[in-house]
Design brief:
Elements: E1 5-8, H1 22-31, H2 38-52, H3 55-58, H4 66-77, H5 86-95, H6 107-116, E2 120-125, H7 131-137, E3 146-149, H8 150-153, H9 160-170, E4 177-181, H10 184-192, E5 197-201, E6 213-215
């Protein structure tokens, strides 16, 4: 069947992943002349998680503004006053900034070439409501026909529900779509269990748990995807 669309994971596939939020908080607070110790931050964040439920497991299906509310609770737990929400706004700006989501060198060119070939591009990511804004700040809003993220889907990859929602939005059947991602479990297992062809972005050249289509970086996707 003709490939009409490509689903891309975001962090670790198109951009370097943000694995640690402490540096973002530290940078923002330093800009306001507030020092932040990592151990103190981690204690505060753990206490907020204990009270509200871990962010990583509680955000699914939550309404908009959830990210800012969690950040505000972290500041409150740290004893940092923010009566007008200015620090929360600075954190929001930082978390959506390209400096914390740096595209891999080949990403833009690969997206441009696939678009030139007439392949529809979509994002499917375990992510939050700030993802569309992050894509906009990268200059990529017009590159993707749809953006599906786990907070709104109420399910994280490899849960098939997020892939089914993405397929519904793309108006495509599984046989018309290739999913590209860097996580074996979330992307490869998740995509194939709903009938999608999957390509593993294996930047570390790790041995795959089982045979699969894999590429060292996104340039390898181009010869594998023919519209």
């Amino acid at each position: 069947m003709r490939i009409r669309a490509v689903f891309f994971d975001f962090g670790g596939t198109l951009v370097t992943p943000l694995r640690d939020i402490y540096p973002v908080f530290e940078e923002v607070l330093r800009g306001r002349h507030i020092s932040l110790d990592r151990a103190a931050f981690e204690r505060a964040h753990s206490e907020v998680d204990a009270r509200l439920g871990p962010f990583s497991s509680q955000y699914l299906g939550r309404s908009s503004g959830m990210v800012d509310r969690y950040n505000a609770r972290d500041l409150e737990q740290l004893g940092i006053k923010d009566p007008h929400g200015e620090v929360v706004a600075d954190l929001h700006e930082a978390f959506t900034s390209p400096r914390w989501h740096r595209p891999y060198p080949e990403s833009d060119g690969v997206l441009r070439e696939l678009g030139r070939r007439g392949v529809a591009l979509h994002v499917v990511s375990n992510n939050t409501e700030i993802l569309p804004e992050t894509l906009a700040r990268l200059g990529w809003s017009d590159r993707f026909a749809t953006v599906t993220y786990s907070q709104e889907a109420g399910a994280e990859k490899p849960d098939p529900r997020i892939f089914r929602l993405a397929l519904e939005r793309a108006h495509r059947s599984p046989g018309e779509v290739v999913h590209v991602g860097d996580s074996w479990e979330a992307d490869l297992i998740g995509a194939t269990q709903v009938g999608l062809r999957a390509i593993w972005v294996n930047r570390g050249m790790d041995p795959p748990p089982s045979p699969c289509e894999s590429v060292r970086d996104l340039r390898g996707v181009l010869p594998l995807v023919s519209p």
